[in-house]
Each structure stands twice: as C-alpha cells, then as structure tokens.
Amino acid sequence: MTVLPLPPLLLQLALGVVLAAPELREENAVVPPAPAAPTPALRAAPLADVQAMMMEAVSCSPPDEERAMKRLFLTNTSVTCNDGSPAGSAGSRRWLVLLEGGWYCHDTRSCHHRWQRLRHLMTSRLWPDQRNVGGILSPVPEENPYSWNANHVLVPYCSSDSWSGTSPAPTPGETFSFMGALIVQEVVRDLAAKGWLSNDSHVLLAGTSAGGTGVMLNVDGVQELVRALGLPRVSVRGLVDSGWFLDRPPFSPGAVAGPGAGPGLGRALTAAGALRQGMALWRARVPPACAARHRTDPWRCYFGYRLYPTVKAPLFLFQWLFDEAQMTADNVGAPVSKQQWDFIHEMGDSFRTTFSNVSAVFAPACIAHTVLTKRDWAAVRVGRVSLPAALRCWDNRLSADSPMEAPERRRGGSRKHKKGDGGGRVPCPTRHVEMCSWPQCNHSCPKLHNPFTGEEMNFIAVLKSFGLDMLSVANALGIDIHTLNNMDPEELLQLLTAS
Ligand SMILES: *[C@@H]1O[C@H](CO)[C@@H](O)[C@H](O)[C@H]1NC(C)=O
Ligand SMILES: *[C@@H]1O[C@H](CO)[C@@H](O)[C@H](O)[C@H]1NC(C)=O
Ligand SMILES: *[C@@H]1O[C@H](CO)[C@@H](O)[C@H](O)[C@H]1NC(C)=O
Ligand SMILES: *[C@@H]1O[C@H](CO)[C@@H](O)[C@H](O)[C@H]1NC(C)=O
User: Fold this and answer.
1) Residue ID of nearest Cα to ligand 3 atom 8
2) In 10 A of CB 57, how many CB atoms?
3) According to the UniProt entry, where is the signal peptide (predicted)?
4) CB of 69 within 8 A of CB of 130?
5) CB 179 within 8 A of CB 210
6) How far apart are CA 47 and CA 53, in angstroms?
7) Is 194 in the pocket of ligand 2 (CB under 6 A)?
8) Cα of 206 to ligand 4 centre, how many Å?
9) Which member of 107, 190, 220, 323 is catalytic?
10) Minimal-distance CA residue to ligand 4 atom 2
11) pLDDT in tens, 290-348
C-alpha cells in the first residue's frame, strides 16, 4: 500500500501520468498566462479535431495493453473542463464510474494559482491517450478481486468544483468554466447513447477525495437521469472514498481553505468561506433535498455527514480515521505538542461519531488519504475484514433486500444498520469502524512510502515528514536520539502525549 504523507494535491501530482510525457512539456510551455493577469480561456477544440482524437483513440490502440484505459471525449462538446477543452472519460471495460479528486479552487485568485501549478486538473489538453489505473479499476483479479471484470470508466477531474458546477465559460469577469455536475451527467448520457447501459445494468458511481464528495452530490441525479433516459431499472449506487470531510473548528484560527488554496492563498478563509465563494463561482448545484435543509447555508452540503441523510441511493463510505486532507484543512501541522496530538486524536473520534447512522462504512485508523486506485487497496483491513470483502457484503445485502429495488423503497429507513443478518445466513456485516484510537494503532495500516524515493517509511519517519524534530523531542524527553529512533511507536506516542 502506498500512502503518501503529503497533502492530497501532491498526491495527485505524483499520480499525474501526463507529467512524464515529454511531448506535453512543450504544450505546457506554450500557454503561460501571467499569474496576476486574468488568463484567457482556451477555446474548445473545433469539433473536427475532437472527432479526429476519438478516431485515433479507437483505431490506434495497441491490443497488447490490457491494463490501459483509452481516452474518450464527451459527445456534448459544450460541456468542458475549466479552460474550455473537452471533458471526457478514459473508458475501456464496464460500469464502475470513478470520479477523480484534487480539491477545488474557489475564487479567481485561487483558480489562477491552480492553473499555474496544477494545470492537468483544469484541462483535458494534457491527457494522454491511455492511462493505466490500478486498484478498483484494475482488470487483474489479484489486484482487484472486487470488480476486475466490471466495465471501468475513469472520469478525470478537470472542473475544480467538487463535481458540483454548472457554469459554462466564460461568464463575465471569469475565465474558467465550472461544469463538474454536467460532466457527470454527460458521461451517463454517453454510456446510455452508445447502448452500453440496459435495464439490468448496475452503475456504481465511485470517487476519491473531492470525487468522493462528488459521488454524494451527484448519485441521486444520476439515478434520476437514467430513469429519464428510459432505463428505469438501472440501479445506481455510490462508493465514497475519502470524500467525507468534517467542518469542526480547525486547529489554528485562520486555517487554510484547503490544500487547493495553495500557500498564502485563502489563508484567512474557513472552509465555509471558501465554499460560499466557490458555490457562487461554480454556479453550484447541490441536491435539492440537502439545499432545502440548509437553506441559508447550502455550503454545508459539501460535508458528508450533513449530505448523507438526504441521499436516497445506497452509499458505501470509505474513510481513513486520520485523513491527511482533513489534517491539512484543519491546519493542525506537524504534531509536536500535546494540543496537536489531542486534536488529531479527537479527529478520529469525530469521524466515528459522524458514522453512527451510516449503514455501510469502512474506516481504518490510519494516516492516509484515498484508497481505491492504489494497487494494494485490497489489502486494507479493519480487523480481519478486507475492503473488497466488505464491499461484497454490501452488494449482497442490497441484492438480498431487493434485486431490482426502486430507490423509493429505501426511503423510510433501511439507512440504519440492521443488527445481525437474520435468516440464518453467515453474518456479513457492512459496518467496519476501527475502535483503537491512535493513528496506525492496529498494525494493519498500509505501509507508508516516501513519495520521492519510494522507500518504505516507519511511523517515526512519518512523524518526521510532518515536521517532527526528533532531536528536540529527544531532548525534551531526556533520552538520546538513537533510543528515540528505535522506540516502539505506541510507547513513543504515550510519551509524546503524557505530560
Ligand atoms: C449539452 O450540454 C448543455 C449543458 O448541459 C445543454 O444545455 C445542451 O442541451 C447539451 N447539448 C446536447 C446536444 O445534448
Ligand atoms: C427498460 O424498461 C422500461 C420499462 O420497465 C422500458 O420501457 C424500456 O424500453 C426498457 N429499456 C431498454 C433499453 O430495454
Ligand atoms: C443519527 O440519526 C438520529 C435520528 O435521525 C439523529 O438524531 C442523530 O443526530 C444522527 N446522528 C448523527 C451523528 O448524524
Ligand atoms: C485490532 O484489531 C483486532 C481484530 O483483528 C481487534 O480485536 C482489536 O481489538 C484491535 N485493537 C485495538 C486496540 O482496537
């Protein structure tokens, strides 16, 4: 398991396959908008170009590249990435639709900053023709025991709006478009138009990080859309990976608005402030049921625990109890003080509390962010249950409830976790929340790796990567550095927190 002890945006960078493609560097260099001045939006490629690209993707694919997902642009070319380039999906097999993440930008300044640093999250012009994506999108059974034989559709994130925007470019005074909610809908429309969906299809809308939030925001809309498209019996479900954020007060006042805000940007903003601005900029669409509950504060609908009770489609929630993106958003910093450790400790408790009404949840006590597209995602466990096994239990329960259930049937209350399975079946629970309270406390956490060297890191190394100064810790504790470096992590944690 590769877990990067880094803010999620760097994680996205590390995964950005385009960064290695030499021919794309030139393209990168061709469009250097000045950071301060408004960036002119790129125009959408002429239709002929887009069609040529699709042809290419279809006819020139190497047959041997079994793992590769091919790039496909949306049919509706007026639904675009931030810069007006066509949005799309890299599709090859069947109906797991995965929304990628990468935080968001919330105002002109943060979006231009993002355009400078993270352009691949704003335009499809840098997308390669093919991508290899592992984990739950892998076609290899050993890597993906849960869904190796499903159709896989990867929808790269290029709208910077947590998949909630409906703003076409360019609006007066704004360079970029924000069409995340429309991109999700167009992906489904295209799947239906190509005849790839039928009444017995199951669509699992999955997403990582901001994509996970996007799942909760869009899953009921997708169910409605397939019904409107004449496929009333397609079942639509959601799988949320690391997109369940908390809006508890941050560790330090004036917390950053989130990793996407970048250094020095939005520093004075809370998540609420950033989301308020973002919602206006994106012309955000949140589910009507949630908006109705939070009429004066619709930004609250970006927080899973508030959104979840209003979602009708079945949802499975994966969340690390010590989510790195949450730690970054809370501005907790390198844990060197008791206050910081207490805050992190309480974060785990807060996550657990918000899970109490969630019927299908998997929450290991690890420091990490996202899981689904990591190559050894299947090794993640809570107790003795692996994540793929828990997902299978969820599928079984849903199909046992009703093989082709209409979403209405679920409304009054199958939400609550049913104790036991009844009927003398082998228990197959769908709630798995680690109870031990420290990060990495149960030794079943993914191995941590240094993102730059790939080297495995132990827990102490992770603490160091958060900025823990071991020498001053050793001095403070009155022990030598060698002893400290070789100390059992749990012992060390106890030392660090006892005062
Ligand atoms: C394309 O999407 C836009 C935005 O949702 C919509 O207004 C338009 O009708 C769509 N065009 C087609 C041909 O479906
Ligand atoms: C799906 O089922 C509905 C009725 O249940 C039917 O009207 C529709 O034609 C079916 N669509 C397909 C593509 O089979
Ligand atoms: C769980 O549901 C109950 C009843 O609807 C509600 O009172 C409670 O606040 C919910 N708990 C959480 C953590 O959302
Ligand atoms: C660690 O996991 C095991 C199950 O494998 C569980 O029995 C145990 O209580 C957990 N440890 C703690 C400290 O929660």
Assistant:
1) 357
2) 18
3) 1-20
4) yes
5) no
6) 10
7) no
8) 28
9) 323
10) 383
11) 999 999 999 999 999 999 999 999 999 999 999 988 888 888 876 667 788 788 889 99
